[in-house]
Amino acid sequence: MKYQVIEEDGFKYIETGQGETLVLLHGLMGELSNWELVIEQFKDRYRVVVPILPIYDLPILTLGVKALSRYVHRFLKYKNYGQVVLIGNSLGGHVGLVFTVAHQEFVKALVLTGSSGLYENAFGGSFPRRESYDYIKEKVEFTFYDPATATPELVDEVFKTVNDRSRVIRILTMAKSAIRHNMAKEVSKITIPVSLIWGKNDKVTPPEVAEEFHQLLPNSELNWVDKCGHAPMMEHPEVFNAYLEKFLDRILLK
């Protein structure tokens, strides 16, 4: 990433641009670079902010989606952005949902892509062969429709992470929290506009998850990305950005 990470008052984030605020929430294994092409597309018209979720910093006994939602709440209050558009991938979408249910007054609109919160088929309860580079490579490729999207740099980063004992314990704790925290009975409370941008070939949060979200969220739209897995903003950024731009124009410029 060419953007500087700002560290202040216990928060780490990147921020660029001016205007209405877009807050991008990364997934469990996500890097800031996952959002790079979204940032590039929108930084000339919006303030784009990517907080680093403290998955590896919060006390492990309290680690979970609710704890990350509380962190987002503290961050947004500290920055005093007013109402923001929350955009979340995978776990980041789940955190966005939990936050929006609790603090809808902070959120002008919500964008979910490959969000957990209803069902996910992730790594599971362990990494039985985490010392095997080929095994981890296969698991990272599972995330995408086109295995080539799993670049050597991305696989190297995941391999390093899951072979760090402290980090892998936190990842598994966080994943179990997300699986336990099913939001089927809560998301109907979200009445603000929601855009679902979903990979048609997502094997982690399959298409039926998007369809269920669409049914449960009263003010939602559902947009499909063909030949795409769990991270449309990485695999087909031009399509993702086109859907996002159309949604933002409708919500913010009307």
From TrEMBL:
Residues 22-242 form the AB hydrolase-1 domain. One of its GO terms (molecular function) is hydrolase activity. The keyword rRNA processing does not apply. Pfam families: Abhydrolase_6 (PF12697). It comes from the Bacteria. Keywords: Hydrolase. This is Alpha/beta fold hydrolase. It comes from Pedobacter lithocola. The lineage of its organism: Bacteria, Pseudomonadati, Bacteroidota, Sphingobacteriia, Sphingobacteriales.
